[in-house]
Write a structure and sequence with these properties.
By secondary structure, the protein is mostly helical. It is 73% helix and 1% strand. The chain contains 12 helices and 2 strands. Helix 4 (59-103) runs antiparallel to helix 6 (115-157). The relative contact order is 0.11.
Length: 406
């Protein structure tokens, strides 16, 4: 499923916050503008005050630089707060919608799916969609605006140096593209292993009576260990790729900056650029490459979360064959209750039976009471004298392989 299709699918959960989203984006743009202006004031301060040694030329650029820094900090703070609020509200709406949708599914929907995997979709997969649609959108806008502003300022200072610097920009795209392909397959395996771990834990704990009765603790632990090793290997592969990406980008950055400084020294000797201009140009490059690196990282993140998003979309695309028309719902109201009169309850008679190896026996109860009571009687040890909720045998005998067990 493409990124555009995923955005269209989950945009309704973000639509009502579009004004706040626009404001957050505008604040992040203002923050990038202030960073650009701050570097420019640094160039003015260097050429007019530092290079000449005149203190009188220091105060005006210094005051302007300080004001720019304050405005940029306030804009950055406001943008981050709004972004976090938008992301959390998106998570709230999406998780509630998914839960309401799942509750409408027929029983066979749950019979074909592991409960632990469904739980994983409610947690990790929903958060992955948020990173793609809400947080990822704002991060992309901030990175693109930063690239445009810093690249434009560098071109304005020295277009020939800027073009020389931009020549290495496609290397970032090539590196990010190659890493994205590998990240996608690893992320798909990681999400599947995460769901399998939740499934094993949920099944083992919800059927703990049977696990204990048939001494299957070691087998359940082995299953959990196998899925944990699978998840461990996927996360380790993901960590290796992420750890390798940043150093490669740093090497490319260093090569480009050294190349610019070398050419810039020749330009200074020819009086084509001032020292302050060269320092400002280097600063713009320093500001330019992190957004480029962020764009590459965002590409890798989008590739990674697409697997989780597709799992969530697959579940939301399921609909009951016979939808509930709501005709059998209880009437609304709080002042209602239930009433019992002379109600009694007991298990009639006693029970006997035998289940041999490779054979099965059925115990019929209205709601599975025979199964639960029998398993409870089996696992309760004869030496247990603690008050608990397990059924207690007051007569008869239990045996396994002909050996009495109490």
């Amino acid at each position: 499923m493409g990124v555009r299709a995923l955005f269209r699918r989950f945009w309704p959960f973000l639509r009502r916050d579009r004004l706040a989203l626009s404001l957050a984006g505008a604040l992040l743009v203002v923050s990038a503008l202030m960073d650009t202006a701050g570097v420019w004031m640094f160039m003015v301060l260097t050429d007019d005050a530092l290079a000449t040694g005149e203190l009188a030329a220091f105060w005006a650029p210094a005051a302007a630089w300080l004001g720019i820094a304050v405005v940029g900090a306030a804009a950055s703070w406001g943008g981050e707060i709004l972004s976090a609020k938008i992301a959390e509200k998106f998570l709230l709406r999406l998780r509630s919608h998914v839960y309401e949708h799942v509750q409408k599914m027929p029983p066979h929907f749950f019979a074909r799916r592991k409960t632990g995997d469904l739980i994983a979709r409610f947690s990790g997969d929903v958060e992955a969609v948020e990173r793609l649609v809400a947080s990822g959108l704002l991060e992309t806008v901030a990175a693109v605006v930063g690239v445009v502003l810093y690249a434009g300022a560098a071109l304005y200072l020295r277009w020939d140096l800027a073009l020389l610097s931009f020549a290495l920009a496609p290397v970032f795209w090539i590196v990010a593209r190659n890493f994205s392909k590998k990240i996608r397959s690893v992320s798909t395996e990681e999400r599947a292993a995460n769901g399998a771990i939740s499934t094993v834990v949920e099944e083992g704990l919800s059927n703990i009576e049977l696990v204990q009765a048939y001494n299957q603790q070691e087998r359940q632990a082995t299953k959990l260990h196998a899925q944990s090793v699978r998840w461990f290997r996927a996360k380790l592969a993901e960590a290796r790729l992420s750890a390798l990406y940043a150093p490669l980008v740093t090497v490319v950055e260093t090569i480009c900056i050294l190349l610019v400084i070398g050419v810039g020294i020749w330009e200074i000797s020819a009086n084509r650029i001032t020292i302050g201009g060269l320092l400002a140009f280097s600063a713009y490059l320093g500001y330019l490459y992190p957004p480029l690196q962020n764009l590459g990282q965002i590409t890798m993140t989008v590739t990674a979360v697409r697997a989780a998003s597709e799992r969530l979309v697959e579940m939301l695309d399921q609909h009951p064959a016979v939808p509930d028309d709501g005709s059998r719902q209880l009437p609304a109201g709080r002042n209602r209750g239930i009433r019992f009169e002379r109600v009694g309850f007991r298990y009639p008679g006693d029970a006997r039976g035998r289940a041999g190896p490779a054979s099965g026996r059925g115990g019929c109860g209205v709601d599975g009471s025979s199964r639960n009571s029998t398993s409870g009687l089996w696992i309760r040890p004869r030496w247990c004298r603690r008050p608990c909720r397990c059924p207690t045998r007051n007569r008869g005998a239990r045996s396994r392989r002909g050996i009495p067990v109490g």
